[in-house]
Amino acid sequence: MKRLIVTLACAAGLTGIAAGTAYGGTVHTGGPKVIIDSDYNTLSDDGQLGVMAVQLQAQGQIDVLGITVVSGNQWLKQGVADALKSMERLGAGNRIGVYVGANYPLSHDYATIKQELAQFPGGDGYLGAWGTPEPKSNADLVAPPDGFATHTKVQHKSAVDFIVDSVKQHPGEVTILAIGPLTNIALATRQHPEIVPMIKQIIYMGGAIDVPGNTTPTAEFNWWFDPVAAQEVLRLPVKQVVVPLDVTDTVKMDKATYDRIAHDPKHQTVITRMFKKLNGYGFDGKNGFETNPNYTTSVWDTLTIAYLMDPTFATQTVDEWVDVDTLVGANDGKATGYASNPPAGLQKMTIVKRFDNARFFDYYVDLLTRPVPVKLPQN
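Now predict its structure.
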C-alpha cells in the first residue's frame, strides 16, 4: 500500500497561526497528570471532553499537561484552530498548551481509501478529514460560531516532542487519553522507545471489538484512520484501557439529557448555547431534522475521562489481547480481541463493555453546565 509521508507540522509551519512560548510558568494542579491526544473539534465529543477536563482542572482533580492535536475528525490545521479557541473560550488559553501533531496517518492515502471503499462498501460513510478538502491556509479554515482565537497561540514544541518530554519529566505518572487516531503516539514511541516503560497508562476511545464498525462494517473510525499506528501503539507494553464502540453504542444521550444541558435556564453559558447550536439538530428539529422525542445519539470520547477519574463508571469489563488489521481490504482497521491464545506480540488490556449510564450522564451534564470562563488554580 502506498503510504503518505507523515508531516509533523511544527507550530511555525502553520501559516498565520502564531506560535506561543514554552509554558515555563504553567501551574500544575493535583490529580492524575494527563495528555489529551485528540482530533479536536469545537464541541462534539472531543471538544466536550476538553470542557470537562478544564472544569476538573479548576477543581484540582486533574492536571492537564497539554492538548496534542492530530488529523482525524478534521484536518490538523482545523483541529488546532478549534482547540486554541476552545481553551481561550474556557479561560484556559494561557494555562493549557496546544501542540501540533501529525497531519497525515502512517497508513492510508486518499486514493487507497477510495479504492477500498468502492470495493468493500458499507458503514456510515463518515471519513472525517478525508471527506473534506485539506485546508492549505488559514483562509480555508472554518471559524467556530464565536470566532477564531485572538490571543491563544500554538506552542513551539511539536506534539511528538511534547509527549516525549512530558513523559520523561513525569516518569510513571502520565496518562494519555487517546481520543483520535494514534499517529502522534506511534511517532513518539518510535522515535523515543525509552519512554514506553515510563507511560503510566493509555486510555483509548477506539475500536469495535465484538460489534460492527461505524466507518466501515468492520472498523471504528479512530483506528481505521491510521491502523498502522493503532497496531503499533496497542502492542506497546503499557497498561491500556479500551473504550470501544461496544460500550459507546450503549451510552445514548436522549432528549431529556440534552435538555438538561441546552435548555436549563439556570445554567446558560457560552458552552451550553454552543452545545445547543452544534448538537441540537436531532433534538430541536434543526438543519432539516424534524423534532423527534425518541431521538438519541451515542457519546464517545467523554467516556474516557469519566473512566480515568472513576473506573467504577465501568460496570462491565473484560481483559483481552487486542490487535488491529492493517491490510487493505474489507477488514482494514478492524479490531480483534483474543480471550485466550493470542498471536505473538499482543498486549493484554482492559476493554470496557458497559457503563453506569445514569451516573455518567449526571457527571457529564454537571461538568458541561458549570460557569465559564473557568477559574483555574493560581500560583
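The chain has one domain: 27-251+299-368.
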